[in-house]
UniProtKB/TrEMBL annotation:
Region (Disordered): 137-163
Designated name of the protein: DUF3106 domain-containing protein
Secretion signal, residue range per the UniProt entry: 1-25
Bias type Basic residues, positions: 145-163
Domain of life where this protein originates: Bacteria
Annotated keywords: Signal
Pfam families in alphabetical order: DUF3106
Transmembrane regions: none
Length: 163
């Protein structure tokens, strides 16, 4: 149970957001976009050429994902987007920063965190609440110690896998 607690806690601390795919090399010129992608991005058409290339590629990628989603997936994504927009700008910045830190981690570590977070999501709401409260009730020093121990365990585990 302690090991599960440690792994789940680490996931919560580090992986605070939805993982987004990488931008593909497809052209982001408006005239080259597929009609269904243009339909999703219609609100950007007038200013498309003035948007930075990276922004255009991200928008295209998001539109492609949207087009490929089932109605249920679109509903869930829409709800998540509403929650995202309702967050204060400081909270959104904090989550973006966590996401960028997560993406800088080794792929092996990212996979472990995703797996652990997946286990966390399988817990009942009451179990998740209890786990969060347990972490919040730790003193700052105890939190640091716990996180340090978890990181050390992960490093040792990763080193054993390599050998």
């Amino acid at each position: 149970m302690k090991r599960l607690f440690s792994r789940l806690l680490m996931s919560i601390v580090i992986a605070g957001s939805i993982v987004i795919g990488q931008v593909n090399a497809q052209s982001s010129d408006w005239q080259d976009l597929k009609p269904e992608v243009k339909k999703v991005l219609k609100q950007f058409e007038k200013n498309w050429d003035s948007l930075p290339e990276k922004k255009r590629k991200n928008l295209v990628l998001g539109a492609q994902r949207w087009v490929s989603m089932s109605p249920e997936q679109k509903k869930v994504a829409g709800e998540r987007y509403k929650k995202w927009r309702a967050l204060k700008p400081e909270k959104r910045s904090q989550l973006k920063e966590r996401y960028h830190k997560f993406k800088q981690l080794p792929l092996e570590t990212q996979k472990r965190l995703r797996d652990t977070f997946s286990q966390f999501k399988k817990l009942t709401p009451a179990q998740r609440k209890k786990l969060r409260e347990k972490f919040r009730n730790l003193s700052p020093e105890k939190r640091r110690q716990l996180l340090k121990r978890m990181l050390n365990r992960q490093k040792k585990k990763a080193a054993r896998k390599r050998h």
